């Protein structure tokens, strides 16, 4: 009973039942009011006709000096289906007409004296049934001396109500059967894709991302939207897990390589293989270089974890961006000279920013490191700085192989390196996250075979300074 397949049809059916019952009650109530009003209208019309008929015959008899007309009550009752009474003085000769007499107290004579017709319910003497009636005054001249009462038993009207209730009940049962079939059909249409998604979610929870998903309906409704989004989520989870596995392989390789080198040099020093001063110094330099490499890798991992957990803090202070870029530029000057890379800087502004200088330097260093990693020997790397009101822009350009359009956004994802096989793929991810944390943006322009341009924009109040010639090195 907790299943959606039961609860959804039960909810729909319950709503239909309540609506149908309310409609049936209102219909019966309205029919009761209608039949009662219709019955009173018929009784008023019959009473008025019979009273006028008798009054005319009585006036004619008086004018002609004849006896008062007899009232053929049994015949009239059979023709009208109503019972006829009179109240007041004996307006008919004796009881030979078969007309029944009512007590005066049953009627409201104040209304009758004004010529108004009275409708009422009463129980005749010696009877056990309630009648609905209309009383019409009988007047000769200006004097009301009696009233003619036409009545029908209420039971006849109630029989109509019962007949209506029976028909409504039959219609209700037929409608209920139709509604049940419709609810069953709709519930299957709604619950089948939801249940399929539920089964697929169970498989995804077990890290089985090849789960079969239902084909989304062509109507484009919420179920189709949910199915499509679930499909996208599954694909992204599968892609993220693949990237994670690839990252673990890369990180283990990156960690294992320097550790192996360090172990080899430590063993050589311990066993006396590197006993001369030059060999010992070379081993110690190699150990220092490999430990620095390990420290950089661990630092990247720690930064990425902090950024993902949103536990990264920034320290604001005044930063002379030109001096910071010159510092970053000089850090790669020796590598540019060694690899015969044309290394230029075009620093066309001297802004002062209120920001975290260490994190800005980290972003620029990562961009330069990425540029030198992809630029072949003899290529070119350029560092540029421009400023406009409201923001400054740092550009790092290279003449590497470039990045395909479909891979330009992917290079900023964690654990991705384009082309495959270069580093752990954390530098650009950390750089973009840091750029966002600093209130800026990091964008990429690239063309296959012609290199890439990374554009780092930061909000700033620009303080213009002197323009100096751009140092270059080849």
What does this structure look like?
With 474 residues, the protein is α+β, with helices and mostly antiparallel strands. The chain has 3 domains: 155 residues, Beta-Lactamase (2-Layer Sandwich), CATH 3.30.450; 87 residues, Helix Hairpins (Orthogonal Bundle); 157 residues, 2-Layer Sandwich (Heat Shock Protein 90), CATH 3.30.565.10. Helix content is 53%, strand content 18%. The protein has a 6-stranded mixed sheet. A 5-stranded mixed sheet has the order 2-1-5-4-3. Helix 5 runs antiparallel to helix 6 and helix 6 packs across helix 10. It is rod-shaped and about 165 Å long.
Question: Short summary of the structure?
Answer:
With 474 residues, the chain is α+β, with helices and mostly antiparallel strands. 53% of the residues lie in helices and 18% in strands. Helix 9 runs antiparallel to helix 10 (427-437).
């Amino acid at each position: 009973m907790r299943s959606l397949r039961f609860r959804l049809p039960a909810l729909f059916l319950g709503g239909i039942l309540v609506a149908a019952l309310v409609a049936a009650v209102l219909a019966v109530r309205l029919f009761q009011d209608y039949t009662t009003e219709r019955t009173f209208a018929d009784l008023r019309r019959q009473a008025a006709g019979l009273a006028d008929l008798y009054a005319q015959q009585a006036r004619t008899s008086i004018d002609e000096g004849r006896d008062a007309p007899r009232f053929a009550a049994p015949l009239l009752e059979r023709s009208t289906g109503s019972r006829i009474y009179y109240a007041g003085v004996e307006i008919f000769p004796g009881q030979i007409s078969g007309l029944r007499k009512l007590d005066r107290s049953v009627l409201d004579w104040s209304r009758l004296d004004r010529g108004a017709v009275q409708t009422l319910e009463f129980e005749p003497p010696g009877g056990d049934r309630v009648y609905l009636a209309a009383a019409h005054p009988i007047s000769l001249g200006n004097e009301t001396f009696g009233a003619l009462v036409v009545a029908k038993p209420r039971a006849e009207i109630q029989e109509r109500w019962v007949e209506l209730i029976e028909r409504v009940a039959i219609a209700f049962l037929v409608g209920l059967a139709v509604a049940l079939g419709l609810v069953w059909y709709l519930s299957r249409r709604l619950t089948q894709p939801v249940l399929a998604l539920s089964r697929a979610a169970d498989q995804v929870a077990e890290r089985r991302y090849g789960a079969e998903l239902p084909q989304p309906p062509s109507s484009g409704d919420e179920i189709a939207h949910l199915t499509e989004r679930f499909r996208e989520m599954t694909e992204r989870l599968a892609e993220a897990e693949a990237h994670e596995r690839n990252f673990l392989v890369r990180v283990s390789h990156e960690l294992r390589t320097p550790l192996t080198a360090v172990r080899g040099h430590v063993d050589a020093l311990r066993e006396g293989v590197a006993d001369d001063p030059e060999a010992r110094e070379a081993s110690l330099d190699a150990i220092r270089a490999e430990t620095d490499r390990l420290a950089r890798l661990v630092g990247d991992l720690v930064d990425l974890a902090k950024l993902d957990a949103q536990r990264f803090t920034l320290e604001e202070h005044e930063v002379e961006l030109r001096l910071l870029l010159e510092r970053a530029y000089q850090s790669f000057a020796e590598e540019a000279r060694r690899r015969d890379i044309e290394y230029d800087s075009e620093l066309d502004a001297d802004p002062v920013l209120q920001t975290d200088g260490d994190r800005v330097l980290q972003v620029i260093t990562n961009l330069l490191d990425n540029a030198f990693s992809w630029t072949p020997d003899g290529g070119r790397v350029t560092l540029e700085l421009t400023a406009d009101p409201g923001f400054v822009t740092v550009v790092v350009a290279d003449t590497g192989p470039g990045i395909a359009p479909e891979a330009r956004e992917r290079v900023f994802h964690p654990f991705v390196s384009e082309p495959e096989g270069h580093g752990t793929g954390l530098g650009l991810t950390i750089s973009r996250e840091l750029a966002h944390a600093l209130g800026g943006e990091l964008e990429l322009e690239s063309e296959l075979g012609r290199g890439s341009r990374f554009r780092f924009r930061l909000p700033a109040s620009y303080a213009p300074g002197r323009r100096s010639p751009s140092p270059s090195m080849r």
